[in-house]
Amino acid sequence: MPDHPDHPAPPRPPGTFKVGTIAGSDVLVSSSWFLIAALIAVIMSPRVEEVQPGLGIWKYVAGLAFAVVLYGSVLLHEASHALMARHYGFPVTSITLHFLGGMTAIEGEARKPREEFMIAVVGPLTSIAVGVAAVGLWFVTPDGLLLMAVEGLAGANLLVGVLNLVPGLPLDGGRVLKSAVWQLTGSVHRGTLAAGWGGRVAAIAVLFWPLAQEQVLDTPPDLIDFLLAFIVGAFLWTGSTQAMAAARLRRRLPSLVARDLARRALSVPADLPLAEAVRRAQEAQAGSIVTVAPDGATVGLVNETALVATPSERRPWIPTSAVARSLEEGLRLPVGLVGEELVLALTRTPAAEYLLVEDDGSIYGVLTTADVDRAFRESAAR
Protein backbone atom coordinates (compact mmCIF):
# COMPACT_ATOMS: atom_id res chain seq x y z
CA MET A 1 0.00 0.00 0.00
CA PRO A 2 1.47 3.39 -0.88
CA ASP A 3 2.21 5.90 1.78
CA HIS A 4 -0.42 8.60 2.32
CA PRO A 5 1.18 11.57 4.06
CA ASP A 6 -1.97 13.65 3.54
CA HIS A 7 -4.10 11.43 5.75
CA PRO A 8 -4.83 12.82 9.19
CA ALA A 9 -2.74 11.25 11.92
CA PRO A 10 -4.63 8.89 14.21
CA PRO A 11 -5.23 10.11 17.77
CA ARG A 12 -2.36 9.52 20.18
CA PRO A 13 -2.97 6.48 22.43
CA PRO A 14 -3.93 7.45 26.00
CA GLY A 15 -1.11 7.42 28.52
CA THR A 16 1.61 8.26 25.98
CA PHE A 17 3.88 11.28 25.55
CA LYS A 18 5.44 12.47 22.32
CA VAL A 19 9.19 13.01 22.63
CA GLY A 20 10.14 13.52 18.98
CA THR A 21 9.91 12.12 15.46
CA ILE A 22 11.96 9.65 13.42
CA ALA A 23 11.50 9.33 9.65
CA GLY A 24 8.23 11.25 9.90
CA SER A 25 6.82 8.99 12.64
CA ASP A 26 5.96 10.17 16.15
CA VAL A 27 8.12 8.72 18.92
CA LEU A 28 5.90 8.09 21.94
CA VAL A 29 6.77 7.03 25.47
CA SER A 30 4.16 5.09 27.42
CA SER A 31 3.56 5.97 31.05
CA SER A 32 4.49 2.34 31.85
CA TRP A 33 8.04 3.13 30.71
CA PHE A 34 8.60 5.30 33.77
CA LEU A 35 7.80 2.30 35.95
CA ILE A 36 10.36 0.07 34.25
CA ALA A 37 12.91 2.92 34.22
CA ALA A 38 12.53 3.32 37.99
CA LEU A 39 12.80 -0.46 38.41
CA ILE A 40 16.00 -0.55 36.36
CA ALA A 41 17.42 2.31 38.44
CA VAL A 42 16.75 0.39 41.66
CA ILE A 43 18.09 -2.92 40.30
CA MET A 44 21.25 -1.26 38.96
CA SER A 45 21.97 0.80 42.08
CA PRO A 46 23.95 -1.94 43.94
CA ARG A 47 26.13 -2.47 40.88
CA VAL A 48 26.64 1.31 40.55
CA GLU A 49 27.62 1.49 44.22
CA GLU A 50 30.11 -1.32 43.67
CA VAL A 51 31.72 0.36 40.67
CA GLN A 52 31.61 3.91 42.03
CA PRO A 53 31.30 3.90 45.87
CA GLY A 54 30.04 6.92 47.74
CA LEU A 55 27.54 8.27 45.20
CA GLY A 56 24.66 8.14 47.65
CA ILE A 57 21.34 8.99 46.01
CA TRP A 58 23.15 9.71 42.74
CA LYS A 59 23.51 5.97 42.21
CA TYR A 60 19.82 5.90 41.32
CA VAL A 61 20.33 8.75 38.86
CA ALA A 62 23.13 6.71 37.25
CA GLY A 63 20.79 3.70 37.06
CA LEU A 64 18.11 5.88 35.47
CA ALA A 65 20.65 7.16 32.93
CA PHE A 66 21.43 3.55 32.04
CA ALA A 67 17.70 2.91 31.50
CA VAL A 68 17.55 5.87 29.09
CA VAL A 69 20.58 4.60 27.16
CA LEU A 70 19.15 1.08 27.06
CA TYR A 71 15.83 2.29 25.66
CA GLY A 72 17.74 4.41 23.18
CA SER A 73 18.97 1.14 21.67
CA VAL A 74 15.38 -0.17 21.74
CA LEU A 75 14.42 2.94 19.78
CA LEU A 76 17.07 2.08 17.18
CA HIS A 77 15.57 -1.41 16.91
CA GLU A 78 12.09 0.00 16.29
CA ALA A 79 13.33 2.76 13.97
CA SER A 80 14.89 0.12 11.73
CA HIS A 81 11.46 -1.52 11.41
CA ALA A 82 9.93 1.85 10.56
CA LEU A 83 12.53 2.73 7.95
CA MET A 84 12.26 -0.64 6.24
CA ALA A 85 8.45 -0.43 6.24
CA ARG A 86 8.61 3.02 4.68
CA HIS A 87 11.06 1.66 2.11
CA TYR A 88 8.32 -0.70 0.95
CA GLY A 89 5.71 2.07 0.94
CA PHE A 90 3.87 1.37 4.20
CA PRO A 91 2.76 4.31 6.37
CA VAL A 92 4.26 4.26 9.88
CA THR A 93 2.19 6.30 12.31
CA SER A 94 4.25 5.98 15.50
CA ILE A 95 6.99 4.26 17.49
CA THR A 96 6.07 3.62 21.12
CA LEU A 97 8.45 2.72 23.94
CA HIS A 98 6.67 0.84 26.72
CA PHE A 99 7.14 -1.54 29.65
CA LEU A 100 8.27 -4.55 27.60
CA GLY A 101 10.29 -2.71 24.95
CA GLY A 102 8.89 -1.01 21.88
CA MET A 103 6.25 -1.19 19.17
CA THR A 104 6.16 0.23 15.65
CA ALA A 105 2.67 1.00 14.32
CA ILE A 106 2.76 0.04 10.62
CA GLU A 107 -0.42 0.44 8.57
CA GLY A 108 -1.27 -2.45 6.28
CA GLU A 109 0.14 -5.93 5.81
CA ALA A 110 3.08 -7.08 3.71
CA ARG A 111 2.12 -8.00 0.15
CA LYS A 112 4.95 -10.48 -0.35
CA PRO A 113 6.93 -12.86 1.89
CA ARG A 114 10.11 -10.91 1.18
CA GLU A 115 8.60 -7.68 2.51
CA GLU A 116 7.43 -9.46 5.67
CA PHE A 117 10.89 -11.00 6.16
CA MET A 118 12.86 -7.79 5.62
CA ILE A 119 10.65 -5.60 7.83
CA ALA A 120 10.82 -8.21 10.61
CA VAL A 121 14.45 -9.30 10.55
CA VAL A 122 16.00 -5.83 10.40
CA GLY A 123 15.04 -5.14 14.04
CA PRO A 124 16.88 -8.07 15.67
CA LEU A 125 19.83 -7.54 13.33
CA THR A 126 20.03 -3.90 14.47
CA SER A 127 20.02 -4.96 18.14
CA ILE A 128 22.74 -7.55 17.49
CA ALA A 129 24.78 -4.93 15.61
CA VAL A 130 24.50 -2.51 18.55
CA GLY A 131 25.52 -5.33 20.91
CA VAL A 132 28.55 -6.23 18.79
CA ALA A 133 29.56 -2.55 18.59
CA ALA A 134 29.30 -2.29 22.39
CA VAL A 135 31.48 -5.38 22.74
CA GLY A 136 34.07 -3.62 20.57
CA LEU A 137 33.89 -0.51 22.77
CA TRP A 138 34.41 -2.67 25.86
CA PHE A 139 38.07 -3.19 24.90
CA VAL A 140 38.82 0.54 24.80
CA THR A 141 36.57 1.87 27.59
CA PRO A 142 38.25 2.67 30.93
CA ASP A 143 36.99 1.16 34.18
CA GLY A 144 34.12 2.90 35.90
CA LEU A 145 30.47 3.68 35.28
CA LEU A 146 31.02 4.11 31.54
CA LEU A 147 32.42 0.58 31.25
CA MET A 148 29.48 -0.73 33.27
CA ALA A 149 27.09 0.96 30.83
CA VAL A 150 28.92 -0.48 27.83
CA GLU A 151 28.81 -3.98 29.34
CA GLY A 152 25.08 -3.66 30.05
CA LEU A 153 24.40 -2.30 26.58
CA ALA A 154 26.29 -5.16 24.95
CA GLY A 155 24.60 -7.89 26.97
CA ALA A 156 21.09 -6.42 26.72
CA ASN A 157 21.20 -5.86 22.96
CA LEU A 158 22.67 -9.25 22.17
CA LEU A 159 20.02 -10.86 24.36
CA VAL A 160 17.20 -8.80 22.81
CA GLY A 161 18.43 -9.51 19.30
CA VAL A 162 18.66 -13.27 19.81
CA LEU A 163 15.41 -13.63 21.78
CA ASN A 164 13.52 -11.58 19.20
CA LEU A 165 14.45 -14.21 16.62
CA VAL A 166 12.51 -16.89 18.53
CA PRO A 167 10.06 -18.16 15.86
CA GLY A 168 6.75 -17.13 17.41
CA LEU A 169 4.42 -14.16 17.16
CA PRO A 170 4.35 -11.40 18.29
CA LEU A 171 8.18 -11.53 18.24
CA ASP A 172 10.08 -10.54 15.11
CA GLY A 173 11.17 -14.15 14.73
CA GLY A 174 7.51 -15.07 14.45
CA ARG A 175 7.17 -12.78 11.45
CA VAL A 176 10.29 -14.37 9.96
CA LEU A 177 8.67 -17.81 10.39
CA LYS A 178 5.43 -16.44 8.93
CA SER A 179 7.29 -15.23 5.83
CA ALA A 180 9.01 -18.62 5.41
CA VAL A 181 5.77 -20.62 5.63
CA TRP A 182 4.07 -18.08 3.39
CA GLN A 183 6.84 -18.49 0.81
CA LEU A 184 6.64 -22.30 0.96
CA THR A 185 2.84 -22.67 0.92
CA GLY A 186 1.76 -19.52 -0.89
CA SER A 187 -0.68 -18.80 1.96
CA VAL A 188 -0.19 -15.86 4.32
CA HIS A 189 -2.97 -17.32 6.47
CA ARG A 190 -1.05 -20.56 7.04
CA GLY A 191 2.10 -18.57 7.74
CA THR A 192 0.36 -16.52 10.43
CA LEU A 193 -1.20 -19.58 12.07
CA ALA A 194 2.16 -21.39 12.15
CA ALA A 195 3.87 -18.36 13.70
CA GLY A 196 0.97 -17.93 16.13
CA TRP A 197 1.34 -21.48 17.40
CA GLY A 198 5.08 -20.85 17.68
CA GLY A 199 4.29 -17.89 19.93
CA ARG A 200 2.05 -20.04 22.12
CA VAL A 201 4.79 -22.66 22.49
CA ALA A 202 7.26 -19.89 23.40
CA ALA A 203 4.80 -18.53 25.98
CA ILE A 204 4.51 -21.93 27.68
CA ALA A 205 8.30 -22.33 27.64
CA VAL A 206 8.72 -18.93 29.31
CA LEU A 207 6.21 -19.85 32.04
CA PHE A 208 8.18 -23.01 32.86
CA TRP A 209 11.60 -21.31 32.63
CA PRO A 210 11.91 -20.48 36.38
CA LEU A 211 11.55 -24.19 37.17
CA ALA A 212 14.51 -24.98 34.91
CA GLN A 213 16.57 -21.91 35.83
CA GLU A 214 18.45 -23.53 38.70
CA GLN A 215 19.52 -26.54 36.59
CA VAL A 216 20.62 -24.33 33.67
CA LEU A 217 22.14 -21.31 35.42
CA ASP A 218 22.75 -22.78 38.87
CA THR A 219 20.69 -19.89 40.28
CA PRO A 220 17.51 -20.62 42.24
CA PRO A 221 14.50 -18.58 41.02
CA ASP A 222 12.97 -15.91 43.24
CA LEU A 223 9.59 -14.19 43.23
CA ILE A 224 10.71 -11.63 40.61
CA ASP A 225 11.74 -14.43 38.23
CA PHE A 226 8.28 -16.01 38.46
CA LEU A 227 6.59 -12.61 38.09
CA LEU A 228 8.61 -11.70 34.99
CA ALA A 229 7.98 -15.14 33.50
CA PHE A 230 4.25 -14.66 33.97
CA ILE A 231 4.27 -11.16 32.43
CA VAL A 232 6.33 -12.20 29.40
CA GLY A 233 4.41 -15.46 28.95
CA ALA A 234 1.08 -13.64 29.08
CA PHE A 235 2.38 -11.08 26.58
CA LEU A 236 3.45 -13.80 24.14
CA TRP A 237 0.26 -15.83 24.52
CA THR A 238 -1.99 -12.79 24.10
CA GLY A 239 -0.03 -11.45 21.12
CA SER A 240 0.03 -14.78 19.29
CA THR A 241 -3.66 -15.40 19.94
CA GLN A 242 -4.59 -11.95 18.66
CA ALA A 243 -2.47 -12.48 15.54
CA MET A 244 -4.22 -15.78 14.82
CA ALA A 245 -7.65 -14.21 15.31
CA ALA A 246 -6.70 -11.32 13.02
CA ALA A 247 -5.53 -13.81 10.37
CA ARG A 248 -8.91 -15.57 10.44
CA LEU A 249 -10.59 -12.18 10.23
CA ARG A 250 -8.41 -11.11 7.31
CA ARG A 251 -9.38 -14.19 5.32
CA ARG A 252 -12.87 -12.75 5.04
CA LEU A 253 -11.78 -9.27 3.96
CA PRO A 254 -11.36 -10.01 0.23
CA SER A 255 -15.16 -10.41 0.02
CA LEU A 256 -15.49 -6.69 0.80
CA VAL A 257 -15.48 -4.91 -2.58
CA ALA A 258 -16.43 -1.24 -2.57
CA ARG A 259 -17.79 -1.31 -6.13
CA ASP A 260 -20.11 -4.23 -5.33
CA LEU A 261 -21.38 -2.66 -2.11
CA ALA A 262 -22.07 0.81 -3.53
CA ARG A 263 -25.54 2.31 -3.54
CA ARG A 264 -26.77 4.27 -6.51
CA ALA A 265 -26.51 7.98 -5.72
CA LEU A 266 -28.79 10.81 -6.80
CA SER A 267 -27.31 14.31 -7.02
CA VAL A 268 -29.57 17.20 -5.99
CA PRO A 269 -29.01 20.92 -5.31
CA ALA A 270 -28.03 21.56 -1.71
CA ASP A 271 -30.94 23.99 -1.23
CA LEU A 272 -33.59 21.64 -2.68
CA PRO A 273 -36.36 20.89 -0.15
CA LEU A 274 -35.69 17.57 1.54
CA ALA A 275 -39.12 16.18 0.67
CA GLU A 276 -38.50 16.76 -3.04
CA ALA A 277 -35.03 15.19 -2.81
CA VAL A 278 -36.51 12.07 -1.21
CA ARG A 279 -39.26 11.93 -3.87
CA ARG A 280 -36.69 12.15 -6.69
CA ALA A 281 -34.51 9.46 -5.05
CA GLN A 282 -37.46 7.08 -4.73
CA GLU A 283 -38.45 7.74 -8.32
CA ALA A 284 -34.90 7.06 -9.52
CA GLN A 285 -34.60 4.03 -7.19
CA ALA A 286 -31.45 5.57 -5.70
CA GLY A 287 -30.22 4.36 -2.33
CA SER A 288 -28.42 7.57 -1.36
CA ILE A 289 -28.51 11.30 -1.98
CA VAL A 290 -25.58 13.67 -2.49
CA THR A 291 -25.80 17.45 -2.56
CA VAL A 292 -24.17 19.66 -5.20
CA ALA A 293 -23.28 23.34 -5.32
CA PRO A 294 -24.60 25.70 -8.06
CA ASP A 295 -21.43 25.01 -10.07
CA GLY A 296 -22.15 21.24 -9.99
CA ALA A 297 -19.44 20.33 -7.49
CA THR A 298 -20.40 17.63 -4.98
CA VAL A 299 -20.40 19.18 -1.50
CA GLY A 300 -22.22 16.80 0.85
CA LEU A 301 -23.59 13.35 1.66
CA VAL A 302 -27.08 12.97 3.09
CA ASN A 303 -26.90 11.13 6.39
CA GLU A 304 -29.47 8.34 6.40
CA THR A 305 -29.92 8.44 10.17
CA ALA A 306 -30.56 12.20 10.15
CA LEU A 307 -32.97 11.81 7.24
CA VAL A 308 -35.01 9.11 8.97
CA ALA A 309 -35.11 11.18 12.16
CA THR A 310 -36.60 14.18 10.31
CA PRO A 311 -40.44 14.12 10.54
CA SER A 312 -42.23 13.96 7.17
CA GLU A 313 -44.17 17.15 7.87
CA ARG A 314 -40.90 19.12 8.24
CA ARG A 315 -39.20 17.82 5.11
CA PRO A 316 -40.86 20.27 2.66
CA TRP A 317 -39.57 23.22 4.68
CA ILE A 318 -35.86 22.37 5.21
CA PRO A 319 -33.06 22.16 2.62
CA THR A 320 -31.44 18.84 1.86
CA SER A 321 -28.12 20.27 3.10
CA ALA A 322 -29.56 20.34 6.62
CA VAL A 323 -29.23 16.54 6.87
CA ALA A 324 -26.01 16.26 4.81
CA ARG A 325 -22.43 15.94 5.99
CA SER A 326 -19.84 18.06 4.23
CA LEU A 327 -17.39 16.15 2.08
CA GLU A 328 -14.37 16.34 4.37
CA GLU A 329 -10.96 14.83 3.71
CA GLY A 330 -11.31 11.03 3.73
CA LEU A 331 -14.99 10.84 2.79
CA ARG A 332 -14.22 10.65 -0.94
CA LEU A 333 -12.83 7.18 -1.71
CA PRO A 334 -11.70 5.36 -4.88
CA VAL A 335 -14.32 2.88 -6.02
CA GLY A 336 -11.62 0.24 -6.60
CA LEU A 337 -10.88 -0.31 -2.89
CA VAL A 338 -11.03 -3.96 -1.84
CA GLY A 339 -10.54 -5.92 1.39
CA GLU A 340 -8.04 -4.57 3.87
CA GLU A 341 -7.42 -1.37 1.91
CA LEU A 342 -11.13 -0.63 2.13
CA VAL A 343 -11.24 -1.31 5.88
CA LEU A 344 -8.19 0.90 6.49
CA ALA A 345 -9.74 3.73 4.49
CA LEU A 346 -12.92 3.54 6.58
CA THR A 347 -10.91 3.40 9.80
CA ARG A 348 -8.92 6.53 8.99
CA THR A 349 -12.06 8.67 8.75
CA PRO A 350 -14.99 7.08 10.61
CA ALA A 351 -18.33 8.00 9.06
CA ALA A 352 -21.70 6.53 8.13
CA GLU A 353 -21.43 7.27 4.40
CA TYR A 354 -18.62 7.71 1.87
CA LEU A 355 -18.64 8.99 -1.69
CA LEU A 356 -17.13 6.51 -4.18
CA VAL A 357 -15.50 8.03 -7.24
CA GLU A 358 -13.95 6.68 -10.43
CA ASP A 359 -10.36 7.42 -11.44
CA ASP A 360 -11.55 10.41 -13.49
CA GLY A 361 -13.31 11.89 -10.44
CA SER A 362 -16.84 11.07 -11.57
CA ILE A 363 -19.32 9.79 -8.96
CA TYR A 364 -19.89 6.04 -8.92
CA GLY A 365 -22.12 5.81 -5.83
CA VAL A 366 -22.24 5.93 -2.05
CA LEU A 367 -20.85 3.37 0.36
CA THR A 368 -22.35 3.01 3.84
CA THR A 369 -20.64 1.39 6.80
CA ALA A 370 -23.88 -0.44 7.52
CA ASP A 371 -23.64 -2.20 4.15
CA VAL A 372 -19.97 -3.05 4.77
CA ASP A 373 -20.80 -4.51 8.20
CA ARG A 374 -23.66 -6.54 6.72
CA ALA A 375 -21.43 -7.94 3.96
CA PHE A 376 -18.78 -8.88 6.50
CA ARG A 377 -21.26 -10.71 8.72
CA GLU A 378 -22.64 -12.59 5.72
CA SER A 379 -19.14 -13.66 4.65
CA ALA A 380 -18.46 -14.88 8.21
CA ALA A 381 -21.63 -16.97 8.16
CA ARG A 382 -20.67 -18.76 4.95
Automatic annotation (TrEMBL):
Any Pfam family matching the protein: Peptidase_M50
Main location: membrane
Localization: Cell membrane
GO cellular component terms attached to this protein's record: plasma membrane
Coiled-coil boundaries: none
Cofactor: Zn(2+)
Topology in the lipid bilayer: Multi-pass membrane protein
Residue stretches spanning the membrane: 27-45, 57-76, 88-106, 118-140, 146-171, 192-211, 223-245
Annotated InterPro entries: CBS_dom_sf (IPR046342), Peptidase_M50 (IPR008915), UCP006404_Pept_M50_CBS (IPR016483)
GO molecular function list: metal ion binding; metallopeptidase activity
Keywords, in A-Z order: CBS domain, Cell membrane, Hydrolase, Membrane, Metal-binding, Metalloprotease, Protease, Repeat, Transmembrane, Transmembrane helix, Zinc
BP-aspect Gene Ontology terms: proteolysis
Domain Peptidase M50: start-end pairs: 65-139, 150-188
Family: Belongs to the peptidase M50B family.
PANTHER family: MEMBRANE-ASSOCIATED ZINC METALLOPROTEASE M50B, STAGE IV SPORULATION PROTEIN FB
Protein name per the record: Unannotated protein
Taxonomic source organism: freshwater metagenome
